[in-house]
Amino acid sequence: MSGEDNIFDRLTPRQRTLAGLVLALSNFMVVLDLTIANVSVPHIAGNLGITPDQGTWIITSYAVAEAICVPLTGWLAQRFGVVKMFIWAMICFGLFSMLCGLSMSLGMIVACRIGQGLCGGPIMPMSQTLMLRIFPPDRRARAMGLWAMTTLLGPAMGPIIGGYISDNWSWHWIFFINLPIAALCVFAAMALLRPVETETARVPIDKVGLALLVFWIGCLQVMLDLGRDHDWFADPLIVILAILALIGFLAFIIWELTEVHPIVDLRVFRHIGFTTGVLSLALCFGAYFSGIVVIPQWLQTSMGYTATWAGIVTAFTAMAALMSAPVAARMMGRVDPRFMISGAVLWLGLMTLWRAHWTSSIDFWSMAAPQFIQGFAMPFFLIPLTTLTLGSVRPEETASAAGLQNFLRTMAIAIATSLVLTGWGDGQRVSRNELAGVLQPADTQSALANIGLSTDQIRQIISNIVDQEALAIAVDHIFFISAMILFVAAAMVWLAPQPRADVDMSAAH
């Protein structure tokens, strides 16, 4: 332990500050990549000759790969050392970013995004672990504040940066910009972090559990992504994938509950506080992310917005979150976290309900208002939720609980993306049929004919108007369902007992 006791003396204050900035930058880059492609999907789809629906594989493949790799982070760090793994993860992340930018087909970009997610998954928890390792206890709060800011800033900047690059350069550059950042982080980590490397040990890995995890998540995600184009359970392929996902999931649960060294410790679900906390987290992130996915696509495909301006509308939420984060941090320890979480999620639900009344004639600031106002609630939900979940488990289970929490959050984002776009597409078709059934276009046709338009042109104009209105109605339906989910999550939080005060936050990925 003597080597660990003086670990803070291994770096000078200047080296420590530089290392902290590098770790925060690496986390920012990985979080940024979760949303940077959202507004660029229409550009990528057009360039590769695929539909925007197929283009969403670019979002979900990254999120799923990240979710699969997160439970492995602890084992990798113990086996090879946290600094060495961090450096290699950054090198591979940069390499796959370059390959994403060079992709010429859907298959290649999805494969490379999976590689990006597998390498990016461990970077977030490892950067946090290293932050806590290099800063002494009296400086940790400020260091973790900087780290948390990058977690909030990434999703905010992603749509704006992605939109600007897609509009003014080329979508390829949303991946190429990672290369200089990754190179800087690698060389800085090699120069600064080597003295704080962790000890290694030959820890066993649950190979069967890992294989089952990859199998059932893979089947589930392919089913969700292909279902839209294959008429769901009318297609035998989708039925087979659903059955395989269910069998894989049940086998995974049975194996993990009986394994001595499980890849995912499911036993922590016996704590009611943890279970209700992570389920609320999954529901909230899924409902919240539905807006991040659907708003940019709707604005670009139907409302005539550029990717840049669609990104700015989406980013207002995180801008407000940055302003309220210090207030939320100061309230921690003084207010029951359940009250903070429940109030914040209720606030998010009300703002989502507000957005459920958008129309095809809505202006920029009318969209920006609920986006901005809902952002103030985000830190009051995110910060205390960690206290609630990790404060509900035993101290020795904290690392497993934190990994599982991050896994469920990432999976919720991936599944929500698929379900939301499916619901949006189905809602558009239903709304279009309903509108066409009650349409009385005689007056419009005669008015357009009087200004010299042909019959075909008149039909096309009316069809375009119906399509635009159907899309807007479908967006409103998505927001209404999301609001109902958020209200359920706000109530669910109160099922958890009040957490203990002494929570070890060092494992909170």
UniProtKB/TrEMBL annotation:
Transmembrane annotation, as ranges: 18-37, 57-77, 86-108, 144-165, 171-193, 205-224, 236-257, 278-299, 305-327, 339-356, 376-394, 406-425, 477-496
Subcellular location: Cell membrane
GO terms, molecular function: transmembrane transporter activity
Pfam families: MFS_1
Domain Major facilitator superfamily (MFS) profile, first and last residues per copy: 19-501
GO cellular component: plasma membrane
Entries under SUPFAM superfamilies matching the protein: MFS general substrate transporter (SSF103473)
Name of protein: Inner membrane component of tripartite multidrug resistance system
Organism this protein belongs to: Sphingobium indicum BiD32
